[in-house]
């Protein structure tokens, strides 16, 4: 027997409008609707629903016939969405209700059984976890790709000498490869932060329902396993109220984005005519509409700028979550837009940086010249005084300071300074000192573990390349 339900008002919501006699104000729809941005979770929403319905059939809560109809309908919807043939409606608020309403159109009232033992609260928590999990996997692959480019550059330029800076003042010569590998280390920590977040994220909220769990004999382990989660979440209130997994991911993204901006800043400096340390490819620079000579490092500048969006996403969501009482509050709908923007921006930064690094060419001669400037081997001279003459380091530092000022007065580099000038400062200095004053010898001598010596860099770069290749083939 078919029972007709009277709709008190044609405008009241088809999903929850039972007790309503009128529709929402236009401005209510405007502030309430999330479909414009949460529609991108449609694949996750459908996967979650299919897992849920399959479990409802397994446990006998739904008949197999009903479950089959629902699953077929959901698969239809997936195809429609993939084909761009699905019409999302703001009146239906969000992705969950848009899909359910379409299901009703496709298979009739049996569609209403899908929402048994479930609420949008556990549904959205599940969808978002699945979405973030996918995002983390994509980001990890992106970070690995950048590491690969950096390691490849490092191996090619294990011997290329450049000035190392502190305070952006010439400090000591280093190798270009060593500089590249510094970023590989940072990105490794970034990746482990994402991996760590993913581990904690991988619990399934589905079946915790609105906030209290459900009286239906559901099998939460089954849905958890079907969706690739490690286990069902243990407390229903926490499960629907928690957004830590997004915050952790955004925090990891913000830190990693910060690393990318340091790299971007160096690229901007290095590509300037004053430094001319690197040449960027045409693919990642733009010209000026008025100054024909210009090649602007726009991609690097935009990477440097976009960290704002990533950090803002973290800050925004942290502020949304602050002080929210348990369990779900509609405030939490504000989690998605900022997260999507932050993670999209980060993925773009990553891709642009990978392209720039792959294409940039270090100007080996210019780097070497600069490395020799600014008395960059003064520490090598002091170390030699300690080693060869048994001088205490503090005294050696002082003697070296005097020699540097003599060189400065004569406008000569340390290796150009006549021996007589040095022996006038300390009579025990011999011409063996010249061996340590060249930038090549300086870097070659830095063989301590983690030091800049070409032999270290070559070994490390090879190790990274091998490790990243192995990872890549396991993906
Ligand atoms: N669109 C909502 C969100 O993103 C889904 C959950 C709504 N739940 C509710 N009880 N109104 O948070």
Span from first to last CA? 54 Å
Spatial sequence of strands, sheet with the most strands: 1-2
User: Which radius of gyration do the C-alpha atoms yield?
Assistant: 31 Å
**What is the N-to-C order of secondary-structure elements (H for helix, E for strand)?**
HHHHHHEEHEHEHHEHHEHHHHHHH
Bound molecule types: arginine
Count of helix runs: 19
Give average pLDDT, whole number: 95
Helix/strand/pairing class, anyone?
mainly alpha
Largest sheet: 2 strands, antiparallel
Low-confidence stretches: none
- The total beta strand count reads 6
Helix amount: 55-70%
> What spatial form do the alpha-carbon principal axes imply?
elongated
Strand content: under 5%
Structure description:
A hairpin with a 2-residue loop joins strand 1 and strand 2. The chain has a two-stranded antiparallel ribbon. The two termini are 54 Å apart. It is mainly alpha-helical and 475 residues long. It has helices spanning 26-32, 35-38, 42-58, 64-82, 95-107, 120-156, 176-201, 220-226, 236-241, 244-270, 298-321, 335-359, 364-372, 378-389, 393-410, 419-425, 434-437, 439-445, 454-474, and strands spanning 161-166, 169-175, 203-204, 231-232, 278-279, 361-362. The chain contains 19 helices and six strands. The chain is 61% helix and 4% strand. Residues 34, 38, 94, 120-121, 124, 328, 330, 332-333 line the site of arginine.
């Amino acid at each position: 027997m078919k029972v007709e339900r009277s709709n008190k008002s044609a405008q009241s919501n088809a999903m929850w409008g039972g007790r309503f006699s009128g529709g929402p104000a236009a401005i209510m729809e405007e502030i309430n609707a999330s479909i414009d941005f949460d529609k991108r979770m449609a694949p996750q929403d459908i996967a979650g629903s299919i897992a849920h319905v399959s479990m409802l059939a397994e446990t006998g809560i739904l008949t197999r016939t009903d479950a089959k109809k629902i699953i077929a309908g959901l698969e239809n919807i997936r195809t429609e969405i993939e084909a761009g043939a699905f019409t999302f409606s703001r009146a239906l608020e969000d992705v969950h209700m848009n899909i359910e309403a379409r299901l009703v159109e496709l298979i009739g009232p049996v569609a209403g059984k899908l929402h048994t033992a479930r609420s949008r609260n556990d549904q959205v928590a599940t969808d978002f976890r699945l979405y973030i999990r996918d995002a983390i996997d994509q980001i990890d692959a992106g970070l690995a790709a950048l590491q690969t480019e950096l390691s490849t550059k490092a191996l090619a330029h294990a011997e290329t000498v450049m000035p190392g800076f502190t305070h952006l003042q010439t400090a000591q010569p280093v190798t270009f490869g060593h500089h590249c590998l510094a970023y590989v280390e940072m990105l490794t920590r970034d990746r482990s932060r994402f991996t760590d977040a993913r581990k904690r994220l991988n619990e399934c909220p589905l079946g915790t329902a609105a906030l209290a769990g459900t009286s239906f004999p559901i099998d939460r382990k089954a849905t958890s396993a079907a969706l690739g989660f490690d286990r069902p979440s243990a407390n229903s209130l926490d499960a629907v109220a928690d957004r830590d997994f997004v915050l952790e991911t955004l925090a990891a993204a913000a830190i990693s984005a910060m690393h990318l901006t340091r790299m971007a800043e160096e690229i901007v400096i290095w590509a300037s005519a004053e430094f001319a340390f690197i040449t960027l490819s045409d693919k990642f620079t733009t010209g000026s509409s008025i100054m024909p000579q210009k090649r602007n490092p726009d991609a690097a500048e935009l990477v440097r700028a976009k960290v704002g969006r990533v950090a803002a996403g973290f800050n925004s969501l942290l502020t949304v979550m602050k002080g929210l009482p348990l369990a779900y509050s509609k405030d939490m709908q504000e989690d998605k837009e900022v997260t999507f923007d932050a993670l999209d921006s980060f993925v773009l930064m990553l891709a642009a940086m990978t392209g720039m690094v792959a294409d940039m060419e270090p100007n080996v001669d210019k780097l070497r010249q600069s490395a020799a400037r600014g008395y960059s081997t003064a520490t090598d001279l002091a170390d030699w005084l300690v080693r060869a003459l048994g001088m205490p380091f503090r005294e050696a530092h002082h003697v070296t300071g005097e020699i540097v000022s003599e060189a400065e007065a004569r406008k000569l580099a340390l290796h150009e300074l006549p021996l007589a000038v040095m022996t006038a400062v300390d009579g025990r200095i011999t011409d063996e000192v010249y061996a340590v004053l060249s930038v090549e010898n300086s870097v070659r001598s830095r063989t301590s573990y983690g030091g800049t010596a070409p032999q270290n860099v070559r070994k490390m770069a090879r190790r990274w390349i091998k490790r990243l290749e192995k990872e890549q083939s396991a993906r």
